[in-house]
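Let's inspect one such protein example.
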Amino acid sequence: MRPRLLARALAVMIVGTLAASFAHAQNADLELRGGATPPSGTVVRCTAEGVVVVSSVTGETTIGWDRVRAVRGEHVEEADAYKDVADQAWRAVSRLARGDVPAAEPIFEELFVEYAGQRGPTSAAISGGLLRCRLARGAHTLAVGAWLAWLHASAGEQPAGLNIDHGLGALPLTDAATGLAPELPPIWLGLPAVRVFGQSPLRAERYGEREAALAQLYQHAALAESGRSQPLPRLTSTDPGVRLVWEVVAAQSRSEPERLAGRRAIEKRLRSEPAAWIDAWLRTALGRSLLHESDPDQQRRGVIELLRVRVVHQRDAPYLAGLALADAAVTMRALGDERVASLLRRELLDTFPSHPATTWEPISLWRPLETSRAAPSQLRRDPVESARNPASFLPPAIASGPHDTPDPSRSPHG
């Protein structure tokens, strides 16, 4: 019995010693927001990206300022230099967590001016928060810049505090395998904001080669949708995200060789049953690719693919589902089926009333086809391009004159 009692006593002493050591290891010089437990270790310095803690167990860790309430001890003066940043970042993140996007976005915007292009947890929280806000209000063109900055800042890792659902959608901020944002496909409509985005400098080269390649492809797609044709950037990267974006953009090209190359790659991907968001991207690109063919049967196949997106992905990809409906309606009208086209347009307006497609001129300026001044020969020659040109559905007095344009800053491409 005596050996057993001795063993128990030793075990109790060891547990007590470990507990005391653990309590001592807890960082008394660092207090986190929300009552979170700070990491064990010693505060060694404060930087623009946060408080650096060193532990013999976990090594060096940087805690972003959005999570820091207070720093005590010898580094308190260093921390005071970032007090305003810590307060602003916490206020923005907490408002976003409550779903108050209008209150959070201006704060993120102000911080983004200083932190865009930097790398670390505070930069990731700011650019990631701004990305969340812009996607939540549907400002897709503005979201691209925030997303590229987030990729650079986080080095592909989900920033702490932003990998939760803030009531802004069930999809994650980005896909871990590719770094792509599922809610931000390189698929555009010919809206004013898209035309501006296609010509605006993103300066993504400061973030790195991957970010620069992605920025070039997103802007190429926007320019192509705005009617400006140029050669597709060559695919030289082995990055899985860049390759997927290249294939989606290539499939929508008006150049037949580029279009076929993208379409073959997409059809190969679809055979592997990809994730739902990738399936939505691929099928939308495939449908739009077929719309560019001159054969009406091919165009109808494209409409079928687009309607598949609308049916299958209405919940997980509402942006693409609405866009697919708009493209399908305009194409069916160009092919002469006014009844089906009108039904599809009506479904778009009823199901997705705030979608950017509702402000796209071929949809918003729709009028009975029999009063159209568009030449029948033109429709037969290139029905899809005629349909996508809003002037083909307008009387000359309206087509040539000024008309109200939706405010791009509030549209989902804003």
Remarks:
- Residues 14-25, 158-171, 371-383, 389-412 have pLDDT under 50 and may be disordered.
- The longest strand covers residues 42-47.
- Strands lie at 30-32, 42-47, 50-55, 59-63, 68-71.
- The first helix runs from residue 2 to 25.
